[in-house]
Amino acid sequence: KNGGTNRCRQLASHFYLSQAGVPRLWHLLEAAGPLLGRNQRRSESKALRKPPRSTQKRPCNMVGREADSAIHAPLALVEDALATGNGVVEVESRFRTALEHPAMRAQVPRLDPGAVAQGRIMPNTLVRFRGLVQDMWNPEYYVGSYKDPMTGSWKQTHYMDCAAVPENTETQLMERKPLVCISVPGEARWCAAPEEEQPAHEFPANTGEPQRFGHSKRPRDMQEEDAEMSDVPSEKETDHASDRRTRRQPCNANTFEGSPSMLHFPWKGVDVHACLVKLYGDASESLRLNDVVDFYGLFTVTPELTAFSENDSSFDEVVPPGSQLPRLHCIFFDKLDTPCPDFAAPESHNILQQANILKSTAEEARGAVVELLRVTLGGDSVAAEYLLLQLLSRVQRRTGEMTLGCHSLNLAGCESTTPLLETLLYILQALCPRTIAVPMTLESFNEGKWTPKKNYDTGRLEPGILQVAAGTQMLLDETQMQAGNLGESGLRGLEALKLVMETQQLEYDFQYYKMSMPTDIAFTILSHGKSLLAADTVVPMKMQSSPEEVLTILKGMPVAKLRSYLWTMRGLSHDAIFQDSVKEGIEERIVTMRQKDKNLGPKDFHRLLNLSKLMAASHGRPMDVSDWDRVQVLDAERRSRLN
Q1: Phi and psi dihedrals of 364, rounded to 5?
Q2: Residues with Cβ < 8 Å from 65, sequence gap 6 or more?
C-alpha cells in the first residue's frame, strides 16, 4: 500500500506540470482507488483541479495539445506518426512542429546525471541533451519493422533499444548511427542551463570528478519500488531473440558494478558526462566531430543491457552500461552555431544588426570590461587591454598553412597564481561561454592525454584535453611546472599543444595514421617567466592589488550586456572592418618602423596588424590608422617591461 501511494504521488508531481495532464492523472488516481483513502483522494482532487496558472504565454488549440502530447506522452505521438507509414520523417516533422515554440522546448527535461539518479526522468521520456560530438561509431543494425502475423501489415519499431517482435515473422533490418556525445567541456551555466544560473557574485561549485548515471543515496523503499516497476518490462523494452543487431548476456542491474569505467575524461575539475545518441535516417551525414548539438529524443533504459557488452563481428565497439552511458534515441536535433540563443552567428547579417544596436553603448561596455579585467589582474591596465583583445580574437580565415585572426597571450611574472587563477577563471566563466583551466605540470604532460587517440581494444576514440568546442578560452597554468624530465608521452603532448597554438589544427591519433582537424581555441598562459610555449604576445605583469576585490565590483556590473558586447564584437569580420582607405597610412608607418629596427619581420607586422583590427573591433567601428597608433603605444609599454 505505502509503495503504491508513493508511486502515485510521484506521478502526481510529474503530471502536475501540465494542465492538460490533470484529467489523465485523475483517471489514473481513480483506477488506483483501493490504494488511497477516500478523504485523501478528495483532498488530492481539489489540489489537482486548481493547478497554478502559468505566467508564460503558451501556444493554443491544436499546437498546444500537440506540444503537450510530445512532452508528456511522446510514445503515443511516435506511434501515431509511425502509423502513417512515413517513418522517421513524419516523427521528426510532428515533434518539430509541436516544439517549435521556445517555451515548449524549455519544458523538455535535460538529461543529466542528477535527474536520472533522483528518478526525475523516467524511461521513455522525451529529453534534451546539449553535447559535443566526441566520437562517431560504426552504424548498427536493428529491426526497423516487422510483418504483423495477425493483420499482415508492417509495423515500424524505431526509437527503442530492443524490439518485441513475434516469432516466425518477416523483419526488415535498418541502420542507425550511434554518436558518443559529451556535455560541452567548460561551458558556463548561463549558456548550458540559463534557468539554473547562479548569482554573479557567488563562486560556481566545482564538482571535480564526473558523475555516474543511475547512482544516488535514495531511501530503501523508493529503490525497492523502482525495482518492482522495472521487473515488468514494456513491449518496447523486451529483448527478443529475433533482434539480431547485438549479442548480449542477460544480467541483473548490478552486474556492471566493479567494471572499469571507459568514460574517464582528461579535464580535471570539469563536470563532464556522456550520452550515447542514436540517429535515424540520413540526419547523421550533416554532423562532424566536435560539433555542438541540441538533441531531442527518447531516454530509454533496458534492464537486460546493464552489463558491458561487445557487439558482434560487424562492430568494433565495446558498449558501456546504461549507468555510465545512457541511451537517447534522437527524434530531431539542432546544430548550434552559437552557444546562447540570444547570440547571433559570427559574420552573419544578424550580428551586424546587433553590432549597430550596440554601437552607441560600445565604449561604455568596453570601459566596464577593461575595468573588470584590470581589477582581476591586480590593477595592471596594460595586461587588461591585451586580455580584452585576446577575448575578441578567433580564427577568421585559413590560407594554406596560415591561420588568421587568432591570438595567444602569455601573462608572465605571476608570483602567486592561486588567487589570480581562481579569480580570472571565475571572471572568464562569467563573461565567456566556454572556459577551461589546465595545469601545465610534469604529471599532466607525462600521464595526461592531450590529443584524441583511437583505442582499438574498446573501439572508442578516447578524448584529449585539446578536444574542446570551438570558441573555448583555455587558461594554461605554467606556474606549477617544476624541474624534471618529460618522457616520450610528455614530449608528444607538448608538441601537440604547440601545434594547436600555432596552426589551430588538432591531430587525431588513429594508431596507423594521423588526421588533422581544424579547431578554434584561445590560449592564455600564466607563468613565472617566459613560457615554454611561443605565445603571440608576452606581457610581464605588474600586480599592485589583490584580485579578490573584483567580486565587489562584479555585483554592480551589467554582466548580460558585457557578454553580448564581447560576443558581438568578436563575431564581426575583420575584412569588413579593415577599410582600403587606411592601407596607405599603415604602410607608411610600417616603413618607418622597419627603418628604425631592422630586426622586425613579417611575423611582427602581422601580429600588430591583427591587434589593430581587434582594437577597432573592441570600439565597435571600422579600423582606422588611430587603432594602429593605439596598439603601438600599448606595445611600447609592454616592450619596456621586457627590458
Answers
A1: -65, -45
A2: 20
Strands of 514-518's sheet in order across: 460-462, 453-455, 505-509, 514-518
Given this model, what pLDDT does residue 409 score? 96
Residue 286 CB neighbours (<10 A): 11
Higher pLDDT pick, 268 / 219: 268
Q: Beta 435-439 vs 514-518: how paired, if at all? A: unpaired
Amino acid at 550: V
In one-letter notation, the amino acid at residue 331 is I
Q: What burial class does residue 266 get, using C-beta atoms within 10 Å of its C-beta: 0-12 exposed, 13-18 middle, 19+ buried? A: buried
Residue 378: φ, ψ to 5°? 70, 30
State the Cα–Cα distance between residues 344 and 572, nearest whole angstrom.
Answer: 10
pLDDT of amino acid 477: 92
Paired residues of 397 in beta bridges: 404
Distance CA 33, CA 392 (A): 63
pTM: 0.78
- Per the structure block, which three cell numbers stand in for 543? 600586480
Q: Render the burial of 383-405: b for 16+ CB within 10 Å, e for the rest.
A: bbbbbbbbbbbbbbeeeeeebbb
Phi and psi at residue 67, to the nearest 5°: -65, -40
For residue 211, give the DSSP letter. P
412 close to 530: Cβ distance less than 8 angstroms:
yes
pLDDT band at residue 327 under the 50/70/90 scheme: very high
In this structure, what DSSP letter does residue 166 have? Answer: -
pLDDT for 416: 59
467 — phi, psi (to 5°)?
A: -90, 85
**Residue 394, all three cell numbers:** 578567433
Mean pLDDT of the chain: 77
- C-alpha torsion sign, points 62, 66, 67, 71: positive
Q: Which residue has the higher pLDDT, 320 or 571?
A: 571
Kindly write down the DSSP assignment for every residue of 90-132, as one continuous string.
HHHHHHHHHT-SHHHHHTSPB--HHHHHTT-S-TTEEEEEEEE
179 Cβ contact list (under 8 Å, min separation 6): 133, 135, 136, 137, 276, 277, 278, 279, 284, 287
**309 and 319 Cβ atoms separated by less than 8 Å:** yes
Secondary structure of 392-447 in HEC code, one letter for each residue: HCCCCEEECCEEECCCCEEEECCCCHHHHHHHHHHHHHHHCCEEEEEECCHHHHHH
Residue 279 bridge partners (DSSP): 177
* CA–CA gap between residue 163 and residue 31 (Å, rounded): 29
DSSP 342-395: TSPPTTSHHHHHHHHHHGGGHHHHHHHHHHHHHHHTTT-HHHHHHHHHHHH---
DSSP conformation class of 187: B
What residue type is 478 in one-letter code?
A: E
Going by the DSSP 8-state scheme, the letter that residue 526 receives in this structure is: E
Q: Using CA atoms in the order 454, 459, 464, 470, what is the torsion angle rounded to 10 degrees?
A: 100
Instruction: Describe the chain by its helix, strand, coil percentages, rounded to 5.
Output: 40, 20, 40
Looking at the DSSP assignment, which residues form a beta bridge with residue 437? 475
| Three-state secondary-structure class, residue 255 | coil
